[in-house]
## 1
Amino acid sequence: MLFVFLILLFTGKKLSEQLQKWSSSPTGEGATVRSTYHFYNPKQNGWDLMEVSAYCSIWDANKPYSWRSKYGWTTFCGPIGPSFPATCGRCMRVRSTRTGAQEIVRIVDRCSNGELDLDVGVFNRLDTDGVGHDQGQLTIRYDFVGCGNGFNLLLASIVDN
């Protein structure tokens, strides 16, 4: 770890930036897809994956509340990314190509239509002009990102400061 820190120090990169890059998609790729919305309503359902019958509840239902409630939820069946169950719990940055609004979401479910089904709350926050609601869909760019759950990002924060 010290060796990596020294290399980053020498190159002028922040450790947190490099760790975020290393924890992103192995290919660094994402895709632009259509997104509809799904009524998970995680807050009203106590952030309980079993309550909403999410596919990933098999693996993630017993994760701490802080983990389950950190980000909004989405299904994933996009054309680029890992397959299930490895996708469960991964995070993506989703951005409306029309409004530019963006948010990080956690994958909790799968679908079969080659797109995303964002929780309605996330969908509405990205649909800042209401056009997506009127059309019933948004065009979304997604990229896999780190979820910021671990020791590495805490360490990076300390080192960067």
## 2
Amino acid sequence: MASAKKDEPHPLTSRVKFRLSNRDFRARAHSNPLNDGNFDVPSRPSEVEWRKWFDLESATSEGLRARALKEEVDVTRPEWVDIGCGYGGLLAEMSTAFPDKLMVGLEIRDRPLQFCEERIKKLRKEAPGSYGNVWYIRTNVMKFLVNFFEKGSVEKMFFCYPDPHYKKKKHRQRIVSMQLLAEYAYVLSPSALVYVVTDVEELFQWISERLTKHPLFTQLTDEEIVSKFQDKLSSQQHSFAVAKITIQSLSIL
């Protein structure tokens, strides 16, 4: 009886109590993505061993296996990607809210990435059966995104509080540009959504302008957002801020 109960998914979110502070993993606020850096990068997406990072045998994965049978999809690869995940709080919270989705956070700085890994390991230990569907990888998204993800494999992409790089000469280091949007569009599915969160008005205008101008993206109206999500959100009782940008077409790629 005790072992059966232990395998049940933990009902809580990532607010499981344990001693781990990001103060012990402090890092520089900025990292130059134009430098090469030292990253272990696969030569192609087929070489990425996702199974070694995700706990696909946990109780969390029951929903994944059900989806695989129902939708005939590959549930060994992440579909939700947090670009510049920082200390990983977003995906840690969403992991238990959406247990049938595999999600990965990508971060260029090593210290925050170490914190993310330690937290998920501790969460899996403290809440057996949960958090098997989330992991974090240190890499340079501006250079190596397509090394990890197949064409059209990502259905949600998050940009939460990206580095604003205020100085004009640093703008080329921003995580959203016309050139990078072409790569994001390549890995996004035709129905994918892009979520953008920032408290810097100038950066929000910068990102919105480039997403709007790019031929592979289109902006959703408020009515389209409500129509597309109200049934799903009301049934699951989860609420998230949705960016008004979605992929339009990948037919020319």
## 3
Amino acid sequence: MDVKDLKSALAYSMKYEAAKTVSKTTRNVRSIEIEDETVHDLRSFLGLCTYYRRFVRNFSAIARPLHKLTEARSNFNWTEECEKSFNSLKQALITSPVLTYPRTDKEFILDTDASNEGIGAVLSQKIGNEECVIAYFSKSLGKPERNYCVTRKELLAIVKSIEHFYHYLYGRKFLLRTDHASLRCLLNFREPEGQIARWNQRLQEYGFEIQHRKGTSHGNADALSQRPFLTTEDAWSSSEVQKAQLEDPAIRPILEKKVISEDRPSWQEIAPERSATKRYWALWDSLHLKDGVLYRKWESDDGSSCRWQLILSKSRMHEVLLETHDSASGGHFGVMKTFSKIRERFYWDRLRADVENWCRECHACGARKGPQNKN
């Protein structure tokens, strides 16, 4: 297996797990043979692992065989011990406690970086005193992009990373961290021109605070940009979410009509549709498209707060309920708390009723409450 297979295998398992849950089993990754020219890739991988070493018990001992391969006078001999070390560290990056499920009550942190090869980003949240990964992102640069100046590459990394994590960041305040100090000035240009102006306009849709930090503290995003892994489809990417919405018979008619026009269709047009579609039709003015995906804009009665809720297809409902209620981060809370957590990010027809049914039928919750007295 060559270096491309190495990148692809690692990226696939990272993206697969980040898009799903920290509790599900990781897909097996085939054995990997590394050739001499991949030392640079190995150093980048070790840089990413080192950033999260505090989560990995006996990190130094586990990583020692790989560190030996990067020494200047070392013969590059990929042994069974190296294979075991690589797989152990890779598994640590894509499972708990490094990787965790997003919390609606915590601020997101987005670290971005760019190199001559590509761009990289890590989306995190601070849980307790530790920063835990929500998802990774990296992308190779095309030939025209490689000719950009350093500052333009760094700005490209911000734009692409924010848009990639749109479903987490849109409508929420978050912290953006970069190791490129001049970006703060660039984003505050009064009269930017051309491509910079277009990028700035796209970024104005988001609410973030930008923070500069030293390159020595930016090893997570830096490692992903130095040797970008091949990008694979995220189960929560815009294309996958849109596909699920179009496959949902209740959502599809609304989505298709929204694409054609923002004007609400007449009752005569919607009357033949199913009841759930009619209930979505009643919410027409609060439904909006972003990158071809349908969202609901919810606002408080006094207009002081709002949130963007992804219109969730029924096919994804089980996954969200499982993570929000049954997972380690879910906590098996009651109906109202579970309902509130889901409503922070999602909306679907009969949401409240589905939450009530799920909590009522949860065996763990039932066992905790004990048998009901029949008098």
